[in-house]
Amino acid sequence: MYKASLNGLGLVNNRIFDTNDPWNRDNSLLPYIELKAAFSSLGIELNTGDKNKGNPVQFEIHQNVCALTNGTPSYLLLFEAKNIYPANGNPTALAKYRKIFTWDDSLVDGDRFIKFNFPNPIVIPEVSGFSGRDRFCCMISGNKSSAHVDPLELYTERVRVIRWFEKNAPADFDLYGVDWDLPPTAPGLIGKIIKRLWRYASRVHQFAPFPSYRGKVANKQDVLKSTRYAMCYENVRDLDGYITEKIFDCFFSGCVPVYWGARNVTDVIPSDCFIDRRDFKNTAEVYAFLKSIDEATYSGYQHRIAAFLQSKAAIPFSSTHFAQTIVQTIVNDLER
User: Are strands 275-276 and 99-102 parallel, antiparallel or unpaired?
Assistant: First the structure.
């Protein structure tokens, strides 16, 4: 059996292929488990790089740009935007890969740059209206910042949303994620240094910079299934094709997202399945609209979400499509 390596993002010990691993929150590792299985069916054993150490590999797959092994055919899964991970925008680094899988519609050429989406294990939600949803609105994200000052980043907008709710409607908002027990993170290297200093200081002093913070979550669905709406902002806005798991996390739980991100999102996801933040001037307008929605209207969103997830339009966002696209492309390329 041939061997291949999956490298990047600190991947070690085949944890990314283990359904029982703590990383497998909300079954998020299923796309990689399916990827490994699809390669295995063709006689190719896919492991994280450390497991193949000392053994020759037929090829490598990298998650975002990382160091290449000389002479080994390499393929790239271009997940993060260059606005957030600058190395992904380095032409010299990209030129070293035989094929690049990317969400970025502006790069896709069907030859060297192959279209793929952030993969999801598709789940059809229950249409239950307001039933069981005793919380009004939430946000699940990390307290992060961009690599540099960027007019398209949405980290700052997330903080503005949080502050608006804390001031104007604190009973209607819950914040979850990591590092919100620290002050907002600034962009760039200085921001990283300051964040590290705050983290050290928090070991001695307890901070509560965000009163709406409810802590981390073991499973996003535990929160989203009990909440009507979620403020769902990508890391960056107005990039064609940049649609991450965030909006799908909401869909799978029957939670209606307020979405801001990909410029062309309505080309691939029906506009009546979510609330488009671009239709409003500010968070106050969004909140007023959410409060005006009755249960029948809310159930309508859920019905349309379920219909979309059961349609052919959702297939390109599935784990199976993700695995098939990568395996077929790489195998065909190696057989040339």
Answer: unpaired
Q: Is residue 34 part of a domain?
A: yes
pTM over 0.85: yes
Token pair 């990209």 is found at: 94
What is the C-alpha separation between 81 and 64, in angstroms, rounded? 9
Output the CA–CA distances (angstroms, integers) from residue 143 to 30, 155, 181, 201, in the order listed: 26, 8, 9, 17
Alpha carbon of residue 27 to chain centroid: 13
| 101 located within any domain | yes
Which range marks the domain in which residue 54 is found? 2-121+318-334
Among residues 165, 261, 246, which one has the least CA distance to residue 213?
A: 165
Give the model confidence (pLDDT) of 86-107 as tens digits.
899 999 999 999 999 999 999 9
Residues 6+ apart with CB under 8 A from 310: 124
* 114 and 147 part of one domain: no
